[in-house]
Amino acid sequence: MELLFAKVMDHLKKAESVIDLRFGHDELAHEWRRHLALERIGQLAEEMACVHEVMLHRVFFLAEREAVNMSVGRRPSAWCWYVMGSIGRREPTVWTDQDHGILFDCAKGEEAACYEFVRHMAAIGTKMLYEAGYPYCSGYVMPTNKRWAQSLTDWERQLSSYVDGGWPSDVRFLFIAMDMRSFYGDAKLAEAARRALFAAIADRPPLLARMGEHVSFPPVPLGWFGNVQTERWGPHSGAIHMKQSGYVQITNALKWLACLMRVPAATTAERRRALAEAGRLPAALAADIAKALDVYYYVRLKYGTEAEDGREYILWRALEREEQKQLKQAMRTAKRLQRFVARRVASIHE
User: Fold this and answer.
1) pTM for this structure?
2) pLDDT digits (tens, 9 = 90+) for 191-221
3) Where are the domains of the chain?
4) Where is the Protein-PII uridylyltransferase N-terminal domain positioned along the sequence (predicted)?
């Protein structure tokens, strides 16, 4: 792995164009297969996250430089590019899609000009990421969506509306925003925003309970007798969706538990460790969660090899017998965690 890490990282740090970055991304896709092994998945996950972070950092640097050179609007006195989704949680696959946003602060009279600069820079950075091999987010969680590129004042106003609303779409937004992690620029802005978000949810038991109920969905596709419920119709018949087969359920459950216990950590691993160390998550369950996440990550890396729609669907019969066994166990763990959360939700209602 040292060769993969050093080779790709060295190229990315010197990249001066999107072409250079795409070459590095393709090199990563080519090289990592030779090192994939479940027993080393922790090391691979860490190095994969580091490579992506170097790549995104370079894109954001180039986007900022181009926006400054074009003299559009006014660069804010304080701003931060933050990441969410799998990169925010530090568990990206090779061809992870875009989940990021921009938060800024400035004098009241400069806000319009700062918005002009931020939106221009966001358009440049989002396009660069796409050309470097990061698909556009299907849910439009990118700073080209005004929801994810805001002044601190507007962000706080928006957060209040979602926290007070509590509609299903609001809950979805809150779960996405809970992953926000400072990445480029003034780190204090995004860190403070995430901590404020966790506190706002934790201080509202009805909202917290509603979000906890959300963790029960979608159901893990594992029947009472251990039968895996694959897609029955359409182009993915006979396949399972790897993110919806227990992975998303686990990551959302850990987000919710971290919020319940007021642990505003940004990554899945940090949340799991903090909850276990505080005695808020049974040691045996925490260990099983770690194993399950390793299995999901391994299978997604091994079979989701292309940067295209549908890469999360994997034919069940294409998996090796041992992989099927390991995935079933991971699904059982996801269902246990959902039940654990459900009991905590019930205690809020009492």
Assistant:
1) 0.93
2) 999 999 999 999 999 999 999 999 999 999 9
3) 2-203, 212-349
4) 40-168
d(CA 181, CA 187): 8
CA distance readout (Å), 310 to 48, 87, 250, 303 = 21, 19, 21, 11
Query: Is the preceding peptide bond at 218 cis, omega within 30 degrees of 0?
Result: yes
CA–CA gap between residue 249 and residue 341 (Å, rounded): 11
Summarised one tens digit per residue, pLDDT across range 90-134 is 999 988 999 999 999 999 899 999 999 999 999 999 999 999 999
Instruction: Classify residue 231 by its DSSP letter.
Output: -
Q: Give the rounded percent of residues in the chain with a pLDDT score beyond 90.
A: 77
Instruction: Say yes or no: domain 2-203 is CATH 3.30.460.10.
Output: yes
Q: DSSP for 202-213?
A: HT-HHHHHHHHH
Q: How far is CA 31 from the centre of its chain?
A: 23
Tokens for 147, please give them: 């929801």
Question: 161 phi and psi, to 5 degrees?
Answer: -65, -40
DSSP-H helix ranges across the chain = 2-13, 18-31, 41-70, 85-88, 111-131, 152-165, 168-177, 187-202, 205-214, 248-260, 268-277, 283-303, 321-349
Strands 100-105 and 149-151, sheet pairing: parallel
Determine the residue type at 34: R
For the record, the structure tokens of 134 come out as: 């990061």
